[in-house]
Amino acid sequence: MLEVFISYPEFMCLESMRNNRAVRVYISDPRILKTLITMLNKEGIPFTELTANIISNGDIVITNNLQHTIKYLRGKRVYIVEANRATPEYLTNVVEKVKCLLRGKDRYRTLILGIDPGVKIGLVILGDNELCKATVFNSVEDLISTVKLALLNIPYERARVRIGNGEKSARVVNEILNFIEKYKSKELKEKEIVIELVDETRTYNIPAIFRGKMGNIPKDVISALNIAVRKGLVIEGIEYS
Q1: Is the dihedral angle over the CA atoms 206, 208, 211, 213 positive or is it negative?
Q2: Count of C-beta atoms within a 10 Å radius of residue 14
Q3: Where are the domains of the chain?
Q4: pTM confidence score
Q5: In angstroms, rounded to a whole number, what is the distance separating the alpha carbons of residues 4 and 236?
Q6: What fold characterizes domain 106-238?
Q7: Label partner for 205 (CA 20 to 30 A): which of 22, 118, 194, 219?
């Protein structure tokens, strides 16, 4: 899998500064701490160890021991994200919560996944029209793995999965539908997820709302961006009133 995020660490740092929220870590389990630090660094999220001297109102505190953490807070109002297990799957959920809080939200109202299913497969993820991720894959398997992680771990109310009508569209649609069917009574319960098939013509220019915010990016990502911002034909999904 080739990841090509457009200045993602810098983007996250800017968001953190804009919302005046710093990430503080208080983890006593070395296994959790090692995996968490690796994942935070990979996402370009700056953090410091939690101490009584640096905590501020609005900070995000990641901890595996809430009772011991409270003594450092000294009445400060912070956002607590608990991290009690060392598995990458579990900590992916923790990191996605932190990323959402850094953008000033506890969840996205609308999550949009745009997929360009060509020879190389482009994927972009938008949270309330903010760019969260942009990736290029060489295989459908890697794409589906990332889509599953996004739909299971990113906090959101409703999701739109928009897929271009390319050569691998049928397989991608079927894989995602099978995944939704499997999890709709479990982790995806009460989520609204809709799949749309989008016309891929004229998807080679950067959409207007993102112009000037990106450097040189692969054409597969540009196509996926265009697909993400277009409404398509609804295929099937989970909808709750």
Answers
A1: negative
A2: 12
A3: 20-102, 106-238
A4: 0.77
A5: 30
A6: Nucleotidyltransferase; domain 5 (3.30.420)
A7: 194
* Residue type at position 100: C
Q: How far, in Å, CA of 177 to CA of 12, rounded? A: 31
Mean of the per-residue pLDDT values of the chain: 82
| Residue 240 dihedral angles phi and psi, to the nearest 5° | -120, 140
CATH architecture group of domain 20-102: 3-Layer(aba) Sandwich (3.40)
Place of tokens 């009690």: 84
| Structure token digits, residue 37 | 């630090």
* Cβ neighbours for 8, distance < 8 A, ≥ 6 positions apart: 43, 44, 133, 134
Task: Please enumerate in sequence order all residues whose Cβ is within 8 A of that of 29, keeping only pairs 6 or more positions apart, or say none.
Answer: 64, 86
Phi-psi region of 116 (alpha: psi -120 to 50; beta: other; left: phi over 0): beta
